[in-house]
């Protein structure tokens, strides 16, 4: 696995186009020699959580997975470390805590029968395309659990993504080592009492769109959207496991715990 053996000899740098990120990138380039991503052992990502997700998806697209050390020069920076200037970067990498993260793999079959595939680090969401309520059949491991969920949609979240869209939809926050997934409805109308489920990460979750012509639905894996879907199948892509690096005193476990006590 990518987290098992780490080498920090060759660093690549990626950064957002914000003024803060570009300034920090210039400072780091003056102190360290960076190489192209295809030659690197680890990626340094400067920006916010969007920058981190972009870096992870870029690696998934070319099937070359490297560990990533994110530095927050954005807004929230939930997946990032603090910026302490250009000094001590190698020492921080050497002492960093490793966090393996496996994405979701989404398979979509459209109303025309086309198949699309995409990966999601945070979540896969199904959303109604029009004013018409979405009606979805929900299955887990080949068994129909809800014949018809009516509402704005539904999402399946990883532990990393459980504090993002999932939390906004009143889904549960999952500990990173829980090996669970959060299945959360979005503005559900029927069944009224169902508020979601927590599933083992080995689960295969499927959705079928009821009345797709009248009630079109889009499927979104993080930021990649496929419209007019008929079926969606989702499972963990363990073969695409990635590695995030964090300062020892600044782990995602503590951040997730703190999120649950925000008033």
From TrEMBL:
<feature type="binding site">
    <location>
        <position position="152"/>
    </location>
    <ligand>
        <name>NAD(+)</name>
    </ligand>
</feature>
<dbReference type="InterPro" id="IPR002504">
    <property type="entry name" value="NADK"/>
</dbReference>
<feature type="binding site">
    <location>
        <position position="160"/>
    </location>
    <ligand>
        <name>NAD(+)</name>
    </ligand>
</feature>
<comment type="similarity">
    <text>Belongs to the NAD kinase family.</text>
</comment>
<feature type="binding site">
    <location>
        <begin position="163"/>
        <end position="168"/>
    </location>
    <ligand>
        <name>NAD(+)</name>
    </ligand>
</feature>
<protein>
    <recommendedName>
        <fullName>NAD kinase</fullName>
        <ecNumber>2.7.1.23</ecNumber>
    </recommendedName>
</protein>
<keyword id="KW-0520">NAD</keyword>
<keyword id="KW-0547">Nucleotide-binding</keyword>
<dbReference type="Pfam" id="PF01513">
    <property type="entry name" value="NAD_kinase"/>
</dbReference>
<dbReference type="InterPro" id="IPR017437">
    <property type="entry name" value="ATP-NAD_kinase_PpnK-typ_C"/>
</dbReference>
<dbReference type="InterPro" id="IPR016064">
    <property type="entry name" value="NAD/diacylglycerol_kinase_sf"/>
</dbReference>
<dbReference type="Pfam" id="PF20143">
    <property type="entry name" value="NAD_kinase_C"/>
</dbReference>
<comment type="function">
    <text>Involved in the regulation of the intracellular balance of NAD and NADP, and is a key enzyme in the biosynthesis of NADP. Catalyzes specifically the phosphorylation on 2'-hydroxyl of the adenosine moiety of NAD to yield NADP.</text>
</comment>
<keyword id="KW-0521">NADP</keyword>
<feature type="active site" description="Proton acceptor">
    <location>
        <position position="49"/>
    </location>
</feature>
<keyword id="KW-0963">Cytoplasm</keyword>
<keyword id="KW-0418">Kinase</keyword>
<feature type="binding site">
    <location>
        <begin position="122"/>
        <end position="123"/>
    </location>
    <ligand>
        <name>NAD(+)</name>
    </ligand>
</feature>
<keyword id="KW-0808">Transferase</keyword>
<feature type="binding site">
    <location>
        <begin position="49"/>
        <end position="50"/>
    </location>
    <ligand>
        <name>NAD(+)</name>
    </ligand>
</feature>
<dbReference type="InterPro" id="IPR017438">
    <property type="entry name" value="ATP-NAD_kinase_N"/>
</dbReference>
<dbReference type="GO" id="GO:0003951">
    <property type="term" value="F:NAD+ kinase activity"/>
</dbReference>
<keyword id="KW-0067">ATP-binding</keyword>
């Amino acid at each position: 696995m990518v987290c098992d053996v780490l080498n920090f000899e060759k660093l690549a740098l990626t950064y957002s186009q914000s003024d803060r990120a570009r300034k920090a990138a210039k400072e780091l380039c003056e102190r360290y020699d960076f190489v192209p991503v295809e030659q690197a052992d680890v990626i340094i990502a400067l920006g916010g959580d969007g920058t981190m997700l972009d870096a992870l998806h870029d690696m998934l697209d070319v099937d070359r997975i490297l560990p990533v050390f994110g530095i927050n020069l954005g807004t929230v920076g939930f997946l990032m470390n603090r910026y302490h200037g250009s000094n001590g970067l190698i020492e921080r990498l050497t002492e960093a805590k490793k966090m393996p993260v496996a994405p979701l793999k989404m398979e979509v079959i459209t109303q025309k029968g086309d198949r699309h595939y995409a990966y999601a680090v945070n979540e896969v969401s199904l959303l109604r395309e029009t004013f018409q309520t979405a009606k979805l059949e929900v299955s887990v491991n080949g068994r129909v659990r809800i014949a018809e969920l009516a509402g704005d949609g539904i999402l399946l979240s990883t532990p990393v993504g459980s504090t993002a869209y999932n939390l906004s939809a009143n889904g549960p926050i999952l500990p990173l080592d829980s090996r669970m997934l959060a299945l959360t409805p979005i503005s559900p109308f029927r069944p009224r009492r169902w508020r979601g489920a927590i599933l083992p990460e080995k689960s295969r979750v499927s959705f079928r769109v009821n009345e797709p012509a009248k009630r079109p639905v889009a499927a979104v894996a993080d930021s990649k959207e496929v419209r007019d879907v008929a079926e969606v199948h989702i499972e963990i892509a363990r073969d695409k496991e990635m590695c995030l690096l964090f300062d020892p005193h600044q782990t995602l476990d503590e951040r997730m715990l703190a999120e649950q006590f925000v008033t």
